[in-house]
Amino acid sequence: MSDVIVRPVEASDHEAWAKLYRGYRDFYKKPHNPDVYTTVWGWLMDPAHETRALVAELNGSLVGLGHFRRFARPIDGGYALYLDDLFTSPEARGSGAGSAILQGLAEVARDEGASLVRWITADDNATARSVYDRLAKQTAWVTYDLAPAE
């Protein structure tokens, strides 16, 4: 993991980020919608937007991404970070890139006074969960999605 560099995404990362983000969307069987890529990249490049990204670089190439944002935690009267997307390119799996991004997020949380970093993953995502189980505590919370009213 010592060869992996984690840093905030930069404008010059656009092409490499887009390739990783396509891989992430492929993993979750999401269609390739150019509007989504444009929108998310715009958010990442807008310092006023809540969505940010860390990227993992290995041997000069981007091999991982982590999209995250801050959220309020009224129960604690504080803030936390929410990891929306974490992806490591298939050829970089096992390099420590995913773990390095999570460590980078833990450092952002510390530096910004956030109480924790939270995320969800698919129950059958065994590869990612083996990393998560080493680095974080699984919660007892069950997730629900409510559709907008018609």
TrEMBL record:
Matches recorded under SUPFAM superfamilies: Acyl-CoA N-acyltransferases (Nat)
UniProt KW Transferase keyword: yes
UniProt keyword Transferase present: yes
Pfam families per UniProt: Acetyltransf_1
Xref: InterPro entries: Acyl_CoA_acyltransferase, Bact_Acetyltransf, GNAT_dom
Top-rank taxon, per record: Bacteria
Segments forming domain N-acetyltransferase: 4-150
GO MF annotations, alphabetized: acyltransferase activity, transferring groups other than amino-acyl groups
Keywords attached to this entry: Acyltransferase, Transferase
Entry protein name: GNAT family N-acetyltransferase
Native organism: Leucobacter viscericola
